[in-house]
Amino acid sequence: MILDPVQLTPFTDPHLLGDLRSWRDVELPGLGRSAEVYAWLPPGYDSSDERYPVVYLHDGHNMFLPQRAYAGVAWDVDRAMTDLARDGIPAVVVAVPCHPTERADEYTQYPLPGEGGGRAPDYAAFLVEHLKPAVDAVLRTRPGPEHTVTAGSSLGGVVSTYLWERHPDVFGGAGVFSPAFWWPGEQALVDLQTSLPERRGGRVYVDVGGRERHDDADIERRYVEDAERLVRVLRGAGVPVRYVFDSQAYHVETAWAERFPSAVRWLLRGYAVAPPAYVVADLARGGTGS
């Protein structure tokens, strides 16, 4: 897969903040489809030699432009990333739209009986073997896993967890928003728990709302229980994790847009915050900090 920098076309839209561009009609190897691949570049990108971390987002049409987003609501990623850059945390964002009719197939590692799914390995191979090398070849990125984050919501949260679990040499951080683990089922969480002892490094942001599925009490309960199980597994393995539970939040883009800024800030910088002076002093004295 080759991405031509000359074909990275800028957007002009009054809603946008910052520099959003895209490659149009890109063939996605192994997925049997094409898509527009978005790239948001931090302020000053063209006038500097700096290299940047990269955030890979799923459901790419929902990230920037309301007129392209599901239900006409975007995550306003451009605003969040502009604020981060202003605070000294610049990053590139690459966003890939989901399959127009088979989203669940590409975002799940196991099928839901009667509904389908199970092509997450193919989607992961596309990202790891094709898209990321192509992006690293044409944009000034920091290619190591410590500088590479993947994030998404619902089944996008499921596949973000899967990518982080299966490809620790590529993705150091995962943003897991309202993960719908009820679709791939119990085995998806068992796989994670089994593989974690062999994983080194990384960090994960997890969130969930209390009203994720207003029309199905059982699935609504599963959203919270599975998110909290994920957090317990990560915490038990010593993985840096931030967990946010919003009892009033629904399963909707506006909720994820609200939580995205603090999530990506933590994934890019906050997880590595230095201990305060009193902790450093206490540790130097051999204290326990209790």
Explained architecture:
The chain is α/β, with parallel strands linked by helices and 290 residues long. The chain is 34% helix and 20% strand. It is built from 8 helices and 9 strands. It has helices spanning 77-86, 103-107, 120-138, 155-166, 186-195, 217-236, 253-268, 277-284, and strands at residues 9-10, 19-28, 33-41, 54-57, 92-95, 148-153, 173-177, 203-211, 241-250. It has a 9-stranded mixed β-sheet, sandwiched between helices. The model has no long low-confidence stretch (mean pLDDT 95).
Q: Quick one: overall form?
A: globular
> What's the mean pLDDT score?
95
> Which percent range describes the beta-strand content?
15-25%
Number of separate helices: 8
Structural class: alpha/beta
Distance between the termini: 53 Å
Radius of gyration: 19 Å
Beta strand count: 9
Which strand order spans the largest sheet, edge to edge or round the barrel? 1-2-3-5-4-6-7-8-9
| Fraction in helix | 25-40%
Succession of helices and strands: EEEEHEHHEHEHEHEHH
The poorly predicted ranges are none
Tell me about the largest β-sheet: 9 strands, mixed
How would you concisely characterize the structure shown here?
The protein is an alpha/beta fold and 290 residues long. It has helices spanning 77-86, 103-107, 120-138, 155-166, 186-195, 217-236, 253-268, 277-284; strands at residues 9-10, 19-28, 33-41, 54-57, 92-95, 148-153, 173-177, 203-211, 241-250.
